[in-house]
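2024-03-11 09:14:02 INFO receiving multi-entity request
2024-03-11 09:14:02 INFO entity count = six
2024-03-11 09:14:03 INFO echoing inputs for audit
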Amino acid sequence: MITSLCVSLRVNGFACKPTATVSEADFSYAGLATAGDTNSTVVGSKASAATVEKIPGLNTLGISMARVDYAPGGVNPPHTHSRATGIAFVLEGTLEVGFITTANKLISKTISAGEVFVFPRGLVHFQRNTGTTPAAALAAFNSQLPGTQSLALTLFTASPAVPEDVLEKAFQIGSNEVDKIKDRLHPK
Amino acid sequence: MITSLCVSLRVNGFACKPTATVSEADFSYAGLATAGDTNSTVVGSKASAATVEKIPGLNTLGISMARVDYAPGGVNPPHTHSRATGIAFVLEGTLEVGFITTANKLISKTISAGEVFVFPRGLVHFQRNTGTTPAAALAAFNSQLPGTQSLALTLFTASPAVPEDVLEKAFQIGSNEVDKIKDRLHPK
Amino acid sequence: MITSLCVSLRVNGFACKPTATVSEADFSYAGLATAGDTNSTVVGSKASAATVEKIPGLNTLGISMARVDYAPGGVNPPHTHSRATGIAFVLEGTLEVGFITTANKLISKTISAGEVFVFPRGLVHFQRNTGTTPAAALAAFNSQLPGTQSLALTLFTASPAVPEDVLEKAFQIGSNEVDKIKDRLHPK
Amino acid sequence: MITSLCVSLRVNGFACKPTATVSEADFSYAGLATAGDTNSTVVGSKASAATVEKIPGLNTLGISMARVDYAPGGVNPPHTHSRATGIAFVLEGTLEVGFITTANKLISKTISAGEVFVFPRGLVHFQRNTGTTPAAALAAFNSQLPGTQSLALTLFTASPAVPEDVLEKAFQIGSNEVDKIKDRLHPK
Amino acid sequence: MITSLCVSLRVNGFACKPTATVSEADFSYAGLATAGDTNSTVVGSKASAATVEKIPGLNTLGISMARVDYAPGGVNPPHTHSRATGIAFVLEGTLEVGFITTANKLISKTISAGEVFVFPRGLVHFQRNTGTTPAAALAAFNSQLPGTQSLALTLFTASPAVPEDVLEKAFQIGSNEVDKIKDRLHPK
Amino acid sequence: MITSLCVSLRVNGFACKPTATVSEADFSYAGLATAGDTNSTVVGSKASAATVEKIPGLNTLGISMARVDYAPGGVNPPHTHSRATGIAFVLEGTLEVGFITTANKLISKTISAGEVFVFPRGLVHFQRNTGTTPAAALAAFNSQLPGTQSLALTLFTASPAVPEDVLEKAFQIGSNEVDKIKDRLHPK
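2024-03-11 09:21:47 INFO inference complete, emitting structure
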């Protein structure tokens, strides 16, 4: 019988496991239970994903989660999810959150534990911990693999590099300034 | 200019607000910050939704959230979401969670704070607090209005009533037993 | 050349057959031509499906059919299709049909041969033969595999069993009553 | 409260009715119960549709039905449904049914009462009654309004007319032959 | 790691290549750079496609392109794309373009270099070069493989052949006329 | 009768026009025929869109186009389309085009007139004119309104402004450098 549960075999794309061999392990994940190490990044925040890569049973189901931890003052820098809307719930602390519309309007708010905020599909958004204690948020996405691009890293640390002239024109900065940003984001 | 943000005007279906009048209030919600009253139901659990009905900016975006609180021993009884897959994150306590496949196999697990579990689209599922302290979970759905049907209530308390003969045949019980369940679920 | 017909090879999920090897057998099915045996079930109805499991050419096309036969007084007990809206056409006889909305309102009607009725996506619904002769209906679904859950069977005969406490709280019945229903639905 | 049933108000596109005013009449239709008049067309067949235009409750649900009746020798001439896959069930009689793939291969079969056949999304297809008695089929579509184009009528009777030169080149026929077909399909 | 780029391996349907082996060759195509040979067809036009068959990186992305060249007086005869809306941009020359609605209304216009025209999903449409010099158009489709059926060829040159009686009834022509069209479109 | 063409009435979201009032003007656009003024921007490129805002008939059809003109050395700076995959065809000149994957790999290529390149949904991408003459490209998107965010402008010129601290942390630059970029991109 054809299964109604399309659990990934992790070969040849995302094929489906027979129902008989599907188990609760395919649908659960414990990796969001502990805070990420916010000292491991220069921005003071750390994201941990619970996507189809960690939960095979999410295959074809169009949803996933992530946890983000923030040191005091920590920032989850501007990024996009190419395939998903996100919605975040503050687990603890206080966050300034915001997204920018295609009309270049910033929609932002400061939210505390238990409050939620929506980041519409594909739009640039960010969060930062405006409190003096650690903060944490749980985000959900309507994609099994939302496809995150952290914009400063994408632009200045891609490999091969984005042509320097493109960055200079985009930000109206000189080659020295481009190199300085690259050095700081991607130290040799 | 046509907006890229389809915030509901709440008239005539879900039409869109002009971008200029959209604000952060359309994308945020504080109603999940406090625990629901688990004494208000006979099953010892209480769900609070954060759907497009509460967050107008979710309109067309295909995602929403809910919080469920559970007294010790409390149960979120078997239900379906007709339009969504759900994924739950345990905020506190310990829950036995499970869903039944279309091959009538129960997939279940006991999970604790920080763990997540997936409830595939449309399948019957439940949670219960197996601990001795209150528990809470945050659920996300890939629909702006997931469409919940709590099955015992749907079958035994709908108005007008589901024909008694249908319930008798479905559960292979007599009319007395049907009436007893109705009385308890829907006391006059 | 890549085929435009994604007929299942029935290996490794639903891959596609080369066009050259596709034939009319992939797109037809004779299994709905004869009435199901309504004596084979305790509820007096029998469903026969014509899904992608029977018609390989339905793969990726998002539609399927089923035939349901009903003895006089027979019931197709409350069930859901997790992935589809259904629409039924009465082939013969008279049926009382209905679904319950998420606002717990029963929408029902008695229909005769040639009449159609819609069961919106994922909602609990049922039919019963209110006539004194056999009845039959043809249903169509907008999914190649609609995913049916007959609710009493799902709740009381899943394997492993749904925790007894969950059923007791959901229906507000005692352990004796749970066992009685289980025995009748799933005799040893 | 926002309804989960998007029944058309038939104003301003397809807006939704409040749940409270939705009734069984929005979800049922009796218009397929009687055979269409196969003498009313030159091709000896007559189609009757049960789409969102007849069943307001189908709005947003992505499914509809139609009944086609065929005189002996009658033909449902080659046509497409621009938005849907179709699946047909023979109610009575014997039909030769077929579709042509994008590789220009005809997939066809003769089917009798109770048999089903699939017409993949958008592909040109036809049926004809190869028996000596009337035939009838019930078709389902995975669109609330499948969008039918009967090809000979579309090409030769559109208003304004398709440029004569386009038809001459397409069919490699002369202006006299184009006019003859037009006259027969669309007698003045 | 699971790739976010589902480049086809061209085995077993459209599976995905690991990101590490994806290159710019998977996302580019030079085959539309030169005009098609409009002398190679009886209708005076020639289409060249840039679909997933030519650009493996288009797999799952839902878009493709085609170039059509037209001799003076050349016609791209009435056809459908079973899975896509098309939008055409005139590269050079002057084209009369049109589609027919399901209400049998022709919507047409003469457009010149730099102008665009839309052909809604699945509807019959055509173009012809009304100028005295060659013309060319670039079309885009919202499908990776739009599925084209040129209607006269589909109806009169499919293999096996569409039953002659079906064509006679559809176009209200005799067997001689059917054979004449077949001979001209598909010379032996 | 319900129209099959959902042409916007431009009131209350995107409602549909009756078929009788739909005309060819709803499906065509001449605004891409002339080159944009590449002197009007600091980056030496100018984009002109042909979306549902310009072509009402595109409503619900999921496709649109744009033309981009580039001065010699001009750059279309890194940007995203939040709702669409893009595919570009070079009308004239030579462009270096590229996108960055979610694994931070640059996929790029230099293409000339007649060549096409794909920019997968939501990913950061750019083009620049590497030739000594003007260049132009025609892009198609699988959305009626693809939702463009030019990243440097989004980050440094949104109103209200993105918090300075967020930009400093994201790019690892000081407040002076943030202000310098803002001044150049958004001169007072």
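2024-03-11 09:21:48 INFO post-check: Chain B touches chain C through 56 residues (CB under 8 Å).
2024-03-11 09:21:48 INFO post-check: The two ends of chain B are 55 Å apart (CA to CA).
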